[in-house]
TrEMBL record:
It comes from Streptomyces blastmyceticus. InterPro entries: Cro/C1-type_HTH (IPR001387), DUF5753 (IPR043917), Lambda_DNA-bd_dom_sf (IPR010982). The lineage of its organism: Bacteria, Bacillati, Actinomycetota, Actinomycetes, Kitasatosporales. Transmembrane segments: none annotated. SMART domains: HTH_XRE. It holds the Pfam family DUF5753. This is Helix-turn-helix transcriptional regulator. Residues 18-58 form the HTH cro/C1-type domain.
Length: 283
């Protein structure tokens, strides 16, 4: 198999975990190559996410590196070998890879925790609200890409409506609720949609009022995706040049603390619905 040149975030994450496992055990790349019966260069490519690794080889790798955490190894094996291509693969080559990585991250998450200061969460946006977001892209999006992004965003939302959806805990700042994206009619429909979605048992939406004052990470949009095991947690942060993904435990701990802080400051779910309702009535 020819090595790929542009691994997905999932593939890079699997490679990173293989590298961490090997380095932590003090095992050389040559030793693993000999065990698996491959060239040394293929080990490097596996650790960079440029080559796939089979389930059997991954377990052999873990055993050779004295990794006895079977729960972690099983979760990593499932991450390395998806049962089937995800729906987002239909957009490969037509949309930026980072958008597909976000969809894959959401699909693989055991639980999602998010915080949004200026924008309504993508998974909770109405079609008209999302359209106003893409309308102001810089530079303007070509018509075909605009429509593909719209369809892709709406398809992403199915993760919350599937038979066994992940828990979704979301903090939305009051500023995002008051943004006049699309005008009053669009905003009112968006707020009503938020109230409806917040009634679902697996969705916990909290509003952070302006009156709550300062909070850590203000202005930042982040998604904390819990993996099948804590060692596979990931944070995704929005930026103007595309999504950024964070895996380092020290940084993950910082973002967990940030989300905990915001949730403590925010209103409880019922008070949040009343807060959203009051804003909608003012429009």
């Amino acid at each position: 198999m020819v090595a790929r040149t542009s691994p997905t975030e999932r593939q890079k994450r699997v490679g990173l975990e293989l590298h961490k496992m090997r380095v932590a055990s003090g095992v050389s790349a040559e030793s693993v190559a000999s065990l698996l019966g491959v060239d040394r260069s293929k080990i490097s490519n596996m650790e960079r996410g440029l080559r796939n690794i089979s389930a059997d080889r991954l377990r052999s790798w873990a055993c050779h590196c004295d990794c006895s955490d079977d729960t972690y190894v099983t979760a990593l094996t499932k991450l390395a070998q998806p049962e089937s291509p995800g729906w987002w693969e239909r957009y490969r080559g037509a949309l930026p890879g980072g958008l597909l990585d976000i969809a894959e991250l959401e699909a693989n998450a055991a639980r999602l925790r998010t915080a949004h200061t200026v924008h309504i969460p993508g998974l909770l946006q109405t079609v008209d609200h999302a359209r106003t977001i893409f309308d102001v892209a810089v530079p303007p999006l070509p018509k075909r890409e605009f429509e593909l992004r719209m369809v892709h965003r709406m398809e992403r939302q199915r993760v919350l409506m599937q038979d066994d959806p992940p828990e979704y805990h979301c903090v939305v700042h009051e500023a995002a609720l008051r943004m006049q994206f699309g005008g009053r009619t669009v905003v009112r429909a968006q707020l009503e949609h938020l109230m409806h979605m917040s009634e679902l048992s697996h969705i916990v939406l909290r509003v952070l009022p302006v009156a709550s004052g300062a909070f850590p990470g203000s202005g930042q949009t982040l998604v904390y995706a819990e993996g099948a095991v804590p060692a596979l947690d990931t944070v995704q942060i929005d930026s103007t040049h595309g999504p950024e993904f964070v895996y380092v435990e020290a940084q993950l701990a910082k973002y967990r603390d940030q989300l905990d802080w915001m949730e403590r400051l925010a209103l409880d779910p019922e008070a949040s619905r009343r807060f959203i309702h009051d804003i909608a009535r003012q429009l």
